[in-house]
Amino acid sequence: MRKQLINLIAFVAIPALTFAQTADEIIDKNIAAVGGADKIAAVKTLQYDQNISIMGQELTGKTTIVVAQSYRNDIAVMGQQIVQVTDGDKGWTINPMTGAATAQALPDEQVKILKGNASVIGTDLATAKDKKYPVELVGKEKVNDKDVYNLKITRPEGVANYYVDATTFQLASMKTTVSIQGQSGEVKVKYGNYKTIEGLTIPSSLELENPGMPGPLAMTLTNIVFNPKVDPGIFAMPK
């Protein structure tokens, strides 16, 4: 009986161990496809411009990031400037479209979400490995006729599912449920038009669905620059 019990435990444990190793292998292949851990880690700051299309409106924006620390996004809308910033554990926004013409502090849950953007786009799995976030391989699926691996990652701001192209090992899409001021909804992102810049292969187009937006958003990134000099004062909340 004792021997049978040991065999049963081994039978259950071995597939689970293999499953975990497979998830690690997928993440390692994704990191290699992006350009390697050293190349990713070498990026300390970055900037890029945005061309945004939403509900027939064409907008422009600019993002400045200090990796793992600060994030600023400026978007021009109908002659107005919308600003969202996180710096460490604090954040603020200016949004004249909602009557907030002066800087307002962001709620903690929104700061957590925006902090997740303080990285090189397309390197979320490298961050997960570096930060040792819990990762589970859900399985292999078909998304838009492509074979993808579904990885469930528990991040500080919540649980997200990342879909990794089974051929290129680049990110194909992700989804997560967010909760802001008592309202929850699912955010979905599709990644595309991968380009190699200074040895890093990253997406230059995104399609985003967010319950807080009036419709789907398409974004094209241009003028991507790694390690520009960044004035830390741009992240300080105006008084």
Describe it.
This protein is an alpha+beta fold. The chain has four helices and 13 strands. The protein has a 13-stranded antiparallel beta sheet with strand order 6-5-4-3-2-1-13-12-11-10-9-8-7, covered by helices on one side. A hairpin with a 2-residue loop joins β11 (about 185-195) and β12. The termini are far apart. About 25% of the residues are buried. Keywords: Signal. This is DUF4292 domain-containing protein.
How many domains is the backbone divided into? 1
Percent of sequence in beta strands:
over 45%
The string of secondary-structure elements, in order, is HHEEEEEEHHEEEEEEE
Give me the side-by-side strand order of the main sheet. Answer: 6-5-4-3-2-1-13-12-11-10-9-8-7
Separation of termini?
A: 73 Å
Low-pLDDT residue spans = 1-20
Give the CA-based shape: globular
Q: Kindly state the number of beta strands.
A: 13
**CATH architecture assignment name:** Clam
CATH class, named Mainly Beta
Helical/strand content category: alpha+beta
**Number of helical stretches of at least 4 residues:** 4
- CATH topology label: outer membrane lipoprotein receptor (LolB), chain A
Q: C-alpha Rg, in Å?
A: 20 Å
- Helix content class: 10-25%
Largest sheet: 13 strands, antiparallel
- Would you tell me the overall average pLDDT? 88
